[in-house]
Amino acid sequence: MLDTQQFSVRLASPLETARGTIDAREGFLVRVETEGLSGLGEATPLVGWTESYEECREGLAQAERVAEELDWGIALGKLEAPAARHGLSLALAEGRAISRDQPLYRSLGDADRTVESVPVNVTLGADEPEALAKRARAAVDDGYPAVKIKVGTNGIEEDIERIRAVRNAVGDGVELRVDANGAWTVDQASEAIDALAALDVAYVEQPLPTAELSSTASLRGSGVDIALDESLATHSVADIISADAADVIVLKPMVLGGPDRAVEAAQDCREAGIDPVVSTTIDAVVARVGAVHVAASIPDVRACGLATGERLATDLARDPAPVADGAITVPQRPGLGIEEPPI
Ligand SMILES: O=C(O)CCC(=O)c1ccccc1C(=O)O
Ligand SMILES: [Mg+2]
């Protein structure tokens, strides 16, 4: 049986990016019950990254029909829409983990390894230099090891001024990351990267539009690592590896189509010498905690973009994986570890 329940959550602090402001998330909670297994998932589409809300709803309905006639494995295999597939895949993975009496991350990865926490970056929108510097400083005082800042909303000069203000406020030891969300041309990216290198920025996420893998490859080796994020919606990790286009790959389970695919992509990254980082599309608690388990299944994962729970005005259940001292405590109960599941 597949039970879906639609939800809508507002962001108390909307996230400003070069591709618009994210101020609400709408999706579906998913519960799968099959042969004694029961698991919870979440499908939260975001246009530009995944299928639309309507396509997601239709994908889930179709999966239910296929599962009734055939089985869940076939339904999952046929489901192409990534957010819908994520909902079903996470629910099946949680059911399996509970039946094995394991926390999800151990069921997804190494069953014998205990991981207590996952380091996270704070995520800051494209704000004025002083405000940004203050927020970055407060996050570092709270223990965050890395600060990620959105850029690409105005000119390069403004971006550099912002990042300089942040660097001055946090000092030398903190990892800075910027995310251009595909806003730059090759010339703008080169100019920005030269200035960001002088401010010791660790990496720039998605400097160029998604399709431009060979131009992205040409930006590497200039003192700031290159990360790809949006490109994963249309290119496989294998494509990125063969184009030599990234030092870091941002894995969003919702965009990749499920925790199973994210874990596999992380392994492919590691084999190619690329660092995997896990993040979400600002999902609600079920998918966010699912992504925490994906991150926990990756040995020695770098700080991940998973500290977004506090942006939501309301959530669907109590967060079993809160941020403390710059890291998320990984739930150790069987499955996701959500104590009072909403469905
Ligand atoms: O990665 C993070 O730090 C948080 C998530 C984030 O930035 C994000 C959230 C929603 C949509 C896109 C993005 C992005 O990484 O570009
Ligand atoms: Mg990004």
TrEMBL record:
<feature type="active site" description="Proton donor">
    <location>
        <position position="150"/>
    </location>
</feature>
<dbReference type="GO" id="GO:0009063">
    <property type="term" value="P:amino acid catabolic process"/>
</dbReference>
<dbReference type="InterPro" id="IPR013342">
    <property type="entry name" value="Mandelate_racemase_C"/>
</dbReference>
<keyword id="KW-0460">Magnesium</keyword>
<dbReference type="GO" id="GO:0009234">
    <property type="term" value="P:menaquinone biosynthetic process"/>
</dbReference>
<dbReference type="InterPro" id="IPR018110">
    <property type="entry name" value="Mandel_Rmase/mucon_lact_enz_CS"/>
</dbReference>
<feature type="binding site">
    <location>
        <position position="179"/>
    </location>
    <ligand>
        <name>Mg(2+)</name>
    </ligand>
</feature>
<feature type="domain" description="Mandelate racemase/muconate lactonizing enzyme C-terminal">
    <location>
        <begin position="129"/>
        <end position="226"/>
    </location>
</feature>
<dbReference type="GO" id="GO:0043748">
    <property type="term" value="F:O-succinylbenzoate synthase activity"/>
</dbReference>
<comment type="pathway">
    <text>Quinol/quinone metabolism; 1,4-dihydroxy-2-naphthoate biosynthesis; 1,4-dihydroxy-2-naphthoate from chorismate: step 4/7.</text>
</comment>
<dbReference type="Pfam" id="PF21508">
    <property type="entry name" value="MenC_N"/>
</dbReference>
<comment type="function">
    <text>Converts 2-succinyl-6-hydroxy-2,4-cyclohexadiene-1-carboxylate (SHCHC) to 2-succinylbenzoate (OSB).</text>
</comment>
<feature type="binding site">
    <location>
        <position position="205"/>
    </location>
    <ligand>
        <name>Mg(2+)</name>
    </ligand>
</feature>
<comment type="pathway">
    <text>Quinol/quinone metabolism; menaquinone biosynthesis.</text>
</comment>
<dbReference type="Pfam" id="PF13378">
    <property type="entry name" value="MR_MLE_C"/>
</dbReference>
<dbReference type="InterPro" id="IPR029065">
    <property type="entry name" value="Enolase_C-like"/>
</dbReference>
<comment type="similarity">
    <text>Belongs to the mandelate racemase/muconate lactonizing enzyme family. MenC type 1 subfamily.</text>
</comment>
<dbReference type="InterPro" id="IPR010196">
    <property type="entry name" value="OSB_synthase_MenC1"/>
</dbReference>
<feature type="binding site">
    <location>
        <position position="229"/>
    </location>
    <ligand>
        <name>Mg(2+)</name>
    </ligand>
</feature>
<dbReference type="InterPro" id="IPR029017">
    <property type="entry name" value="Enolase-like_N"/>
</dbReference>
<feature type="active site" description="Proton acceptor">
    <location>
        <position position="252"/>
    </location>
</feature>
<keyword id="KW-0479">Metal-binding</keyword>
<protein>
    <recommendedName>
        <fullName>o-succinylbenzoate synthase</fullName>
        <ecNumber>4.2.1.113</ecNumber>
    </recommendedName>
</protein>
<keyword id="KW-0456">Lyase</keyword>
<dbReference type="InterPro" id="IPR041338">
    <property type="entry name" value="OSBS_N"/>
</dbReference>
<dbReference type="GO" id="GO:0000287">
    <property type="term" value="F:magnesium ion binding"/>
</dbReference>
<keyword id="KW-0474">Menaquinone biosynthesis</keyword>
<dbReference type="InterPro" id="IPR036849">
    <property type="entry name" value="Enolase-like_C_sf"/>
</dbReference>
